[in-house]
Write a sequence for this structure.
């Protein structure tokens, strides 16, 4: 079987690699010259553990090829997986122009002599696949859906940092079809035969339901995250212990421990964008999703309050412009280079706007690395912002260190050395503010260690 993946970004490349692992011949079509060049050279354009090594392995084995043209590959393919980006810049949530452009090219390339299934794996708002299906019929009125081709909604549920594992071992596969097409179902079973053999559940439904399953899943997980962060704040005021609260409520099998970890606020490319799109979709239909909108507001407020908390801890008779804050972690979660809507970005910007000096360390965003270019220009060019080579460089002469991302390497730091490097108020230990609850105050007794909801 020949599978063509249109789009060599995060979802597309992970999908292509995993289809190779299933034993298929896979072709990636990437229109960006820069990304095309990287892929051809075996360089992953996105950061994900094990992805680049797998890319090089499958290129060497000739299971994977890279192209920059849809036309010829479409005619050879049994399945086309569309995974193009739905945004043109980091500032926007949604732009479907690349998706519709790709679908137009695919539609013109369809053959009346060969059936092909077109899997829409790109994250899209509810109603998008119906529009795609109607556009395809308009462009190719000579072809019949269910006979010559099928549009198949197949949303992805890939968590950054564990995307390959999530693809190979999913909780389930969601398939949305316009009609009860036997050819489409047969193709789905061939494409995902390995997962069928592993007894992974498959859910067949219509386009709109498949699209809404993904955004609703993210909305529900975000609600859990925002809720437990608010309870952590309540624990701070009441003297309760958030870790024990989480263990206690997790005993209820209807709740469970997953997605109940403390954080400075959820971020990344997927969650905030999907929530805003879901809210806007409902709003356009005259529906106010009060709980979801409350979750969005709660997350925004939590992040915006971090700067005020930092200032309250370091403020004294000296001006704020003389203070130095160390931010540990820039990505919204470990094992990724994704800083879209990362709490760290907002906090750093707020601190810089108050003329506070900010030193930042993240193991991915080290000085002179290619990843540094992803940091917003207004931050990167601010005279009070400094990228550090190590945690120890970052905390040197710092008034407070703030853990924003729970990178594993933070667990093995020499805290005696950090204690010596940091500034201390008279008769006081250095301040460590931990928004990930990575440590215990008993482990760091020579610090003024402040965690979330723990006493």
């Amino acid at each position: 079987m020949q599978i063509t993946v249109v789009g060599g970004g995060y979802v597309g490349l992970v999908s292509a690699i995993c289809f190779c692992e299933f034993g298929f011949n896979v072709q990636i079509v990437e229109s960006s010259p820069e990304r095309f060049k990287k892929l051809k050279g075996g360089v992953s354009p996105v950061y994900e553990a094990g992805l680049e090594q797998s890319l090089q392995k499958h290129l060497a084995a000739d299971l994977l090829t890279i192209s920059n043209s849809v036309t010829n590959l479409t005619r050879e393919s049994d399945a086309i997986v569309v995974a193009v980006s739905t945004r043109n810049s980091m500032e926007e949530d949604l732009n479907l122009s690349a998706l519709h452009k790709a679908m137009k090219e695919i539609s013109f390339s369809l053959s009346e002599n060969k059936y092909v299934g077109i899997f829409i794996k790109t994250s899209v708002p509810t109603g998008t696949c119906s529009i795609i299906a109607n556009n395809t019929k308009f462009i190719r009125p000579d072809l019949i859906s269910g006979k010559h081709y099928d549009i198949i909604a197949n949303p992805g549920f890939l968590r950054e940092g564990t995307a390959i594992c999530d693809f190979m071992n999913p909780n389930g596969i969601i398939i949305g079809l316009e009609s009860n097409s036997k050819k489409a179902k047969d193709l789905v079973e061939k494409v995902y035969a390995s997962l069928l053999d592993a007894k992974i559940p498959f859910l067949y439904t219509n386009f709109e339901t498949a699209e809404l399953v993904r955004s609703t899943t993210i909305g529900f997980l975000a609600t859990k995250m925002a809720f437990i962060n608010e309870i952590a704040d309540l624990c701070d005021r009441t003297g309760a212990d958030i870790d024990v609260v989480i263990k206690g409520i997790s005993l209820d099998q209807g709740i469970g421990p997953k997605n109940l970890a403390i954080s400075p606020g959820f971020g990344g490319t997927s969650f905030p964008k999907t929530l805003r799109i879901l809210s806007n979709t409902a709003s356009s239909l005259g529906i106010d999703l009060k709980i979801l909108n409350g979750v969005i507001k709660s997350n925004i407020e939590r992040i915006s309050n971090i700067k005020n908390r930092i200032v309250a801890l370091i403020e004294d008779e000296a001006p704020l412009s003389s203070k130095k804050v160390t931010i540990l972690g820039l990505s919204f979660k470990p094992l990724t280079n994704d800083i879209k809507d990362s709490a760290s970005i907002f906090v750093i910007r707020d601190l810089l706007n108050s003329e506070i000096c900010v030193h930042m360390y993240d193991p991915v965003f080290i000085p002179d690395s290619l990843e540094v270019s992803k940091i917003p220009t207004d931050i990167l060019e601010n005279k009070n912002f400094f990228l550090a080579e190590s945690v120890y460089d970052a905390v040197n002469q710092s008034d407070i260190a703030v853990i924003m991302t729970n990178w594993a390497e933070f667990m093995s730091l020499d805290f005696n050395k950090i204690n010596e490097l940091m500034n201390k108020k008279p008769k006081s230990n250095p301040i460590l503010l931990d928004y990930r609850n990575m440590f215990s105050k008993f482990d760091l007794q020579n610090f003024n260690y402040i965690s979330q909801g723990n006493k």
